[in-house]
Amino acid sequence: MFSRERILNLLLGLLLAACITRLWLMPLPSSFWVDEMATVFVVQHGPHHPSFAVAPQVPDSIYYQLPRASQRLFGFSEIAYRLPSVLLMGIALFCIARLSARLIHPGAAWFAVFVCLSMRGINDQAADARPYALGTCIAASSLWFLIRWLDSGHWRDAALFIATAALLWRVHLLFWPFYVVLSVYAVTRLLRHETRPGWLPTIAVFAVLGLTLLPVMIDAISLFRQATAHVIVALPTLRDLRISLKFGLILICGGGAFVLSRLFHWPRGPVAVGLSPMALIAAWWLVQPLALFAVSSVTGSSMFVARYLYLGLPGAVLAATLAAACFIPPDWWKPLAVVFAAGVLLMLGQWLQRWPMHHGSDWRLAAHTVDRWAGNDPDTPVLCPSPFIEARPPVWQPSYALPGFLYCHLPVYPFRGKPYLLPFDDSPEAERYALSLADGPLSRSGRFLIYGGFGNVRYWRNWLSIQPQFSTWHRERLGLFGDVLVELFEKPHPARTTPPVTTPPVTTPPVTTPPVTTPPVTTPPVTTPPVTTPPRPSV
Questions:
Q1: Cα–Cα distance for residue pair 32/173, rounded to 1 Å
Q2: Tens digits of per-residue pLDDT, 267-296?
């Protein structure tokens, strides 16, 4: 006989395997998106390629060693580049489960795991060839080692804490707010006398950590002066901040647990969560979005990008788990985790697609479409606006050397045809160049294509459509590729001459109606004149 506990563990294990397979593994073969193709460029051309002079922050990460190693082992493919992120997010998930058991309740681990899997931001990291999964893994690991050191005072844990925390800022330059989270937790425990090491050892450990971060801080300050050149989003509003704090998730978990507690008449006991765990959860949840919101508002250079906020998502997960803990009895954690996991799998599985997409950008299929329409003519013009905001004059030039970072998507998914490079957005220099193309190779060709991001392609399609050279040309959008577009311009074919088709005349015989006589009233005969249908004109 299987006990209730064994059945629940079996169900939870199966549901975890199903969620990982559907949400993390099955999107791996899908097309790279723009930033992932930048990863490919860094790996294949090195971080010192001269085209990175316009964006030195792009290759400045220890992360790229992982996809480089994976490519050496498994060759070049989307799966090979994304596999390190899957493994790193698996470790991060394990650490978050351990942290929830340590900070909230021993039975909350499974529930926290499936709350993680309910967040698209966490699932996106797992199938993304970018540094964010590594950052989440290192952040969760450094917190775990900090807690162990403050609990035990073992210097091995202190060394592991320093090593992991020192790596975090080297993963991404916008991960610096997390050091506030570490400091808040350590100071809270020291003030409450909940640590084995006292103030002096703790200050010493954080001082060593600070020394290891000095070189990164110097680089970050120098790069911050160029921040305005890399802004890709508008300044955040209070609504953006509210959305980033994931109040909806916390309300669903806490409110749902409250409703169930009323339905099943669960006894409500005190939540045994101390002030120090609550301070850690609140800091992990709030610091990253609040810090980037404040810096963006003060400097006028927006850093409030969704993927830069990923580091705070586990804090939101723990906040949602803590909200649910106010109402869930100890023996109900696992049954509720089963129900929650089934809902996650049902709602986020993208079941209308056999193979879910990792991102809403199908550059691979778009490039194959360009290749098919270019045919066997290698001179078919293909206008390629850059997907990177740094592609502006004077950095952008029509003679921009390829391969280069600003057009790193072209070698990843190559196509036949002759690329003509356009900048990210409009400028007088860009319009002069586009006009020379319109008067030259585009007019001479019978066909050309525009290939790139949705907004970039739409602008140049509209601009070219009003040029007199193409007023009679056929225009067509080719396929659906998410936020990637391929537009076709094609010269109309000469009108074909079709010989006239002659149809013999059709004559309808006359129709005569006999006279109608009704006694005793005599009606004169009614005669209908013959109706003749005229011959049909020749076509």
A1: 23
A2: 876 567 889 999 999 999 999 999 999 999
